[in-house]
Design brief:
Organism: Methyloprofundus sedimenti
Shape: globular
Number of helices: 1
Helix content: 10-25%
Strand order of the largest sheet: 1-9-4-7
Protein name: Cupin
Pfam families: Cupin_2 (PF07883)
Keywords: Signal
CATH architecture of one domain: Sandwich
Structural class: alpha+beta
Length: 138
């Protein structure tokens, strides 16, 4: 009788363990996927050279405007906190709020500005080439 109780207990334990694994399934959400930047332009081919990935956390204080700049490489980001406005040289504008993603302009002059009352916090992923700058100021 004790062995039957042990077997039943073991079976129950295995069933509980299996159901816990099912409940803890991995969930994947694609936040952004595109071959175009936010203004609709096709992204360029990757440059030749040793690839280098950079991940930056950028905090832009309230009422701050970044200098006019361009990125010579593909990059994308996600705004974690606050609001951010990105303005291209041709005045095309993108307004972002926390949770929004961006596939950034490549080789086009633009700037970002935080017009809000709290810091804007963005994580940006750069797919670059070793030794090359991530951005160039005008």
């Amino acid at each position: 009788m004790k062995s039957i109780i042990k077997v039943i207990g073991l079976v129950l334990l295995l069933l509980m363990s299996a159901s816990a694994k099912i409940e803890n399934k991995i969930d994947v959400d694609v936040l952004t996927q595109s071959s175009k930047s936010w203004d609709g332009a096709l992204l360029p081919n990757y440059a030749n050279g040793q690839p280098e990935i950079s991940i930056l956390k950028i905090i832009i204080p309230p009422c701050t405007e970044l200098p006019l700049h361009k990125h010579p490489l593909i990059n994308a980001g996600m705004l974690l906190k606050g609001e951010l406005t990105v303005v291209a040289e041709d005045k095309t504008t993108l307004h972002m709020k926390a949770g929004d993603t961006i596939i950034e302009l490549v080789n086009k002059w633009h700037y970002g500005k935080n017009e809000g009352h709290e810091a804007a916090e963005i994580i940006v992923f750069y797919a670059g080439i070793e030794g090359k700058p991530l951005s160039i100021e005008k």
